[in-house]
Amino acid sequence: MIVYHVPPIDFWNGWQKPSDLFRVSVSDNTFEWHDPAEWSSMWAKAQKLAKKAGWDGDIRDGPYVTVLPMPPEPPPVVIGWKEDNNGNTFIATPYELPWLADMVFEQIEG
User: Fold this and answer.
1) Taking Cα atoms as reference points, which of 66, 58, 48 lies closest to residue 89?
2) What phi and psi, each to the nearest 5 degrees, are found at residue 102?
3) Fewer CB atoms inside 10 A, N or C side of the chain?
4) Could you give the count of Cα atoms lying within 13 Å of 84 in the half-sphere of its Cβ?
5) 79 Cβ neighbours under 8 A, 6+ residues apart
6) Distances (CA, A) of 79 to 28, 64, 94, 101
7) How high does pLDDT run on average in the chain?
8) Is the CB of residue 78 less than 8 Å from the CB of residue 42?
């Protein structure tokens, strides 16, 4: 996982709450895309790495999730949240996101 520490993101269009992505279908008790049990470990790892990247441990907005439009199935999950004290944002992803390179304060891999 890679965590990017970037300037504030104020609009989370296209992102959703983790409970919307990590859920079980009501009709047939199958997973929509991602097993809800995956969320806890992903979120814990993202937070651990974010602290190494400068996160103070507070949250103003999020966490939110989105997926990368690429294989494999299910698509890879990206987690984002905004820090409360200064508004800086943390993006946790399983793949490098080169378009963030110009605005990164810190990038941590683990």
Assistant:
1) 58
2) -75, -15
3) C
4) 5
5) 18, 42, 43, 46, 62, 63, 64, 65, 91, 92, 93
6) 27, 6, 10, 17
7) 86
8) no
Find where tokens 């004290």 sit: 85
> Any idea which residue has 């200064």 for tokens?
86
What are phi and psi for residue 73, nearest 5 degrees? -95, 130
Q: How far is residue 59's CA from residue 19's CA, in Å, rounded to a whole number?
A: 17
pLDDT at 29: 58
The gap between the terminal CA atoms of the chain, to the nearest Å, is 6
**Bridge partners (DSSP) listed for residue 88:** none
Per the CB < 8 A criterion, the answer to whether 18 and 43 are in contact is yes
Taking the C-alpha atoms of residue 31 and residue 48, their distance in angstroms, rounded to an integer, is: 27
pLDDT tens sequence across 62-93: 999 998 887 767 788 999 999 998 889 999 99
* Cut 0.90: pTM above it: no
